[in-house]
Design goal:
By secondary structure, the chain is an alpha/beta fold. The chain contains five helices and nine strands; from the N terminus they run βαβαβαβαβββαββ. The protein has a seven-stranded mixed beta sheet with strand order 3-2-1-4-5-9-8, sandwiched between helices. Strands 6-7 form a two-stranded antiparallel ribbon. The protein is globular and about 45 Å long. It has a domain at 59-183: Rossmann fold. It has helices spanning 17-26, 37-47, 60-66, 86-95, 145-154; strands spanning 7-11, 29-34, 53-57, 71-77, 97-108, 124-129, 135-140, 157-166, 174-183. The protein binds S-adenosylmethionine. Residues 11-14, 17-18, 33-36, 39, 59-60, 77-80, 83-84 line the site of S-adenosylmethionine. GO terms for molecular function: methyltransferase activity.
Length: 184
C-alpha cells in the first residue's frame, strides 16, 4: 500500500515512534492518540516539528466518538485495542475507516506463557509495567483469533489475517497476535 498522504490513526501511540516512522519513511499523515499525557508530551517533544504528525491526549474511544474524520488505516501496536471493550471500540473504529480500508493491531498473545484464551467475551485481569517499573492492574480482553473475528464481524470488519509470533526467549508459546481486518 502506498502510504503517501494517506491519513492514519494510531490508538495508544505511546512516545510516538511508530507514528513518526510512518510519517517520515512513508509520507503518511498520522494522528497518534494516547491516554497518558506524559506519553503525548514525550511524543511531541521528539517529533512535534513534523507537520504530518499530530499527537492527541485522550481515551481512544472518546477520541473516535468526538471526531468526524475518516482514515485510510487505523492501527494499534500493543496499544488501546485489547484494553478497551471490543464491543464499543471496534464499531467506533469501523465508523472512522473508509470502505475497504484496513485495521491492524498487535496484542499480547492470549496463550503467552501457557495462558488460556478467554472462553467468553469478558476481560481478564492483567498488569502493565509503567516507566518507573510500578505495575498497574488493567482489564485485558484476551481473545484468540476466532473470537476477534466474531467481534470484528459484528462491527462490520472482515478479518483478513491473524498471525502469531514467537520469541525464542519465551519458550514454545507464541508471544504476539497480529490481526489485520478490512472495513466492509
Ligand atoms: C505498551 S504501550 C505501546 C505504545 C506504542 N504503541 C508503541 O508501540 O511504542 C501502550 C500505550 O497504550 C496507551 N493506552 C492504553 N489504553 C489506552 C486507551 N484507552 N486510549 C488511548 N491510549 C491507551 C497507554 O497509555 C500506552 O502509552
Amino acid at each position: 500500500m502506498d502510504l503517501r498522504r494517506k491519513r492514519l490513526l494510531e490508538l495508544g501511540c505511546g512516545p510516538g515512534h511508530n507514528a513518526a516512522h510512518l510519517a517520515t519513511r512513508y509520507g503518511a499523515h498520522v494522528t497518534g492518540v494516547d491516554l497518558v499525557g506524559l506519553q503525548v508530551r514525550r511524543a511531541r517533544s521528539h517529533y512535534g516539528r513534523l507537520n504530518n504528525l499530530t499527537f492527541v491526549a485522550g481515551h481512544a474511544l472518546h477520541y473516535l466518538q468526538a471526531s468526524a474524520e475518516r482514515f485510510d488505516a487505523i492501527y494499534s501496536v500493543f496499544g488501546a485495542i485489547g484494553l478497551v471493550a471490543p464491543e464499543l471500540l471496534l464499531p467506533a473504529i469501523a465508523q472512522h475507516l473508509k470502505p475497504g480500508c484496513t485495521l491492524a493491531f498487535s496484542v499480547p498473545h492470549p496463550q503467552r506463557g501457557g495462558r488460556r484464551p478467554s472462553t467468553d467475551d469478558r476481560p481478564s485481569r492483567d498488569y502493565v509495567t509503567l516507566h518507573d517499573r510500578t505495575r498497574l492492574p488493567v482489564a485485558r480482553w484476551e481473545f484468540d483469533a476466532e473470537r476477534w473475528e466474531k467481534h470484528l464481524g459484528r462491527a462490520g470488519l472482515w478479518l483478513a489475517s491473524a498471525q502469531e509470533f514467537h520469541d525464542a526467549r519465551h519458550g514454545l508459546w507464541p508471544t504476539t497476535l497480529l490481526i489485520t481486518a478490512h472495513k466492509l
